[in-house]
Specification:
This protein is 17% helix and 29% strand. With 227 residues, the protein is an alpha+beta fold. The chain has 2 domains: 53 residues, Structural Genomics Hypothetical 15.5 Kd Protein In mrcA-pckA Intergenic Region, Chain A, CATH 3.10.290.10; 160 residues, Pseudouridine synthase (2-Layer Sandwich). Strands 5, 6, 7, 8, 11, 12, 13, 14 and 15 form a 9-stranded mixed β-sheet that branches. Helix 1 packs across helix 2. The model has no long low-confidence stretch (mean pLDDT 95). The chain binds uracil. The site of uracil has 8 residues, from helix 5.
């Protein structure tokens, strides 16, 4: 919202008085005088007018969580515990999910109340890599590497999946890097090769890697350096 609009709403001050107040230098945004009537202010900014608080800044939250199997990646669910239930923070209900995982998938999830940040990470154009560890029912043949790189046609969406980097780590174990997130994508891709995923775990989203000391069900705030 623009600064003049926000101020105009305060005690029905109106746009004209609001603009005059801004231009005369009596309005601060995050403690600094702003004379720009079109200054974009969001809910994380503190706005004061002659010492009166017009808007107190909301706390921005960015966190990583180790989702255990069995927990739903949603903000509410009638049947199962959700990732929000794992977060003992008074502002947890302001959070939304940066991407999702199936209920029987474990691993890294990011949560925030900062829509700008999550939009950037989720923007398909940015092709943020996501890394998964996959365990399969049957051995993974070496030619699966080429098949995953070439992509699979998904009939429901009528699209070909973007190239996936598949590293075979053991007979039934692989690391996968994808740059998109289609519904049940990994399970569907293995299904197409006649195989089945029996265990799926997300290790990384872009630059954020699940640390070994963050156990299932645990979470922590991301610090400024990481952001
Ligand atoms: N692909 C899947 O099939 N499931 C997930 O949870 C994530 C990616």
């Amino acid at each position: 919202m623009k600064l003049d609009r926000l101020l105009a709403k305060h005690e029905s001050m109106g746009r004209t008085r609001a603009r005059a107040a801004i231009v005369s230098g009596t309005v601060t945004v995050d403690g600094r005088v702003s004379r720009r009537i079109d200054h974009e202010v969001d809910r994380f900014m503190r706005v004061e007018w002659s010492g009166t608080v017009i808007r107190s800044a909301e706390r921005k939250i960015h966190l990583m969580l180790h989702k255990p199997v069995g927990v739903v990646s949603a903000t509410s669910d009638a049947e199962h515990p959700t990732v929000i239930d794992l977060i003992d923070d008074p502002d947890r209900h302001t959070l939304h999910l940066v991407g999702r995982l199936d209920r029987n998938t474990s691993g890294l999830m990011l949560l925030t109340n900062d829509g700008r940040w999550s939009k950037q990470l989720m923007n398909p154009e940015r092709k943020v890599p996501k890394v998964y560890l996959v365990e399969t029912r049957d051995p993974i043949p070496p030619d699966a590497v080429a098949a995953f790189a070439a992509g699979f046609h998904f009939h429901t969406e009528d699209l070909v999946t973007r190239p996936v980097l598949l590293e075979i780590l053991g007979e039934n174990l692989a690391r996968l890097t994808l740059h998109e997130g289609r519904y049940h994508q990994i399970k569907r891709m293995f299904h197409r090769t006649g195989n089945r995923v029996v265990k799926l775990h997300r290790e990384q989203i872009g630059p954020f890697r699940l640390p070994p000391d963050l156990g299932p069900g645990e979470w922590r705030h991301l610090d400024h350096g990481e952001l």
